[in-house]
Amino acid sequence: MSAVRKARTQEGGAPATAAPFAIAVENIVKRYGAFEAVKGITFEVKDGEIFGLLGPNGAGKSTLIRMMTTLMPVTAGRALVAGHDVTKEPNAVRNMIGVIPQALTSDQDLTVYENLLIYAKLYSVPKEKREKNIAAVLEAVDLTKWRGAQTKTLSGGMRRRLEIARGLVHDPRIFFLDEPTTGLDPVSRIAVWEMLNNLKKTRNLTMLLTTHYMEEADRLCDRIAIVDHGTLVALGTPVELKQSVPGSNVVEVQFARESDDWKARLEALTDVTEVQSQSAGVYRVLTSNGSQTTTQLVEMASRLGEQLSSLSVQNTSLDDVFVHYTGRQLRDEQVKAVFQMPPRPGVNA
Ligand code: ADP
After folding, report:
1. What is the structure's pLDDT at 171?
2. What stretches of 137-265 adopt beta strand conformation (E)?
């Protein structure tokens, strides 16, 4: 079985040890009045990893991040950040973390440099270190040449990068980012991903981010915790999570010639769990091993001298993972690889 683990709940959970982890959350609960927004979640974040909390709006991700960053009291359970209890030692926690909230909060009327300077002072960065730190974070987010620009003249992507620089100016060890690319266009989003990856490598940071973008979680995170309705439904690396979903690869094939035999022939291929007949000559083949089934299918057609009009392999996505663990779709985006088969000589299309 895969390394994916399901949530440990209050009843079943063994206490985590804090020491080896950047963050250790144990059976944490948040109630807003009678409403339980976070229902006893347990996970650990290792030093130096990018850890993602993935879930739909309202899942409880921001509430979790607010508790871990001392912005909101914990109702029950505990969270240790850099070994410090967020309830008992909030100041020690605050010294170790950088927080990027969802909303853009840098002052529009100040320059990029002034925004960073205010934060450096706020976090008591010693005077002799301030200029060096500001220069380093500007370089890290590729805003050095915009240092003197008024913040209101920056694009959305650049402002997001400024917020990230601001969160780093006091050299935190652990970085919390709430929906870091929400509202950005696809190009700026990819730029932010690359930047965060670089930061992780060059500054030896641990990052915890929340997202409802599956692609973001998939491309950026070392491990992902899927959160839904205030509970943790699965946790693992993107690959482990996808491998934990049985029979979820879909191969869609269209034969140039319709035949009554195709369904049975497809069903006989290794790892195929189901064959659905679509329109004439078109089949959806559910398999636990997409690449092997595709290879066998192409070999079978070749052996029989038959032509495939098209063949598409749909990879297991985090959406499939979400559906598997929650019974619902996170969103309708799918990862699709489409291969158009070239016609073979002597066979009519
Ligand atoms: P997410 O970040 O995953 O979108 P949130 O943590 O913001 O989710 O919200 C989780 C749930 O808690 C939602 O149902 C939300 O409406 C509720 N909630 C969030 N903040 C408050 C609050 N201050 N008072 C009452 N309910 C809240």
Report:
1. 92
2. 174-178, 206-211, 223-228, 231-236, 249-255
- Is residue 220 a contact partner of residue 193, using CB atoms and an 8 Å limit? yes
Q: Mind listing the pLDDT tens digit for each residue in 122-149?
A: 999 999 999 999 999 999 999 999 999 9
Distance 37 CA to ligand 1 centre (A): 6
Answer yes or no: do 294 and 221 share one domain: no
Structure confidence at residue 342 (pLDDT) = 45
Give the three-state DSSP class for 5. strand
- Sites in the chain below the pLDDT cut of 70: 1-19, 247, 330-349
Ligand 1 mutation target, pool 29, 62, 65, most atoms within 8 A of CB: 62
**What residues make up the domain containing 270?**
246-315
Number of structural domains in the chain: 2
DSSP state letter for 146: G
Are 102 and 198 in the same domain?
yes
Distance from Cα 33 to the centre of ligand 1, integer Å: 12
Tell whether 338 is covered by a domain: no
Is there a domain that residue 104 lies in?
yes
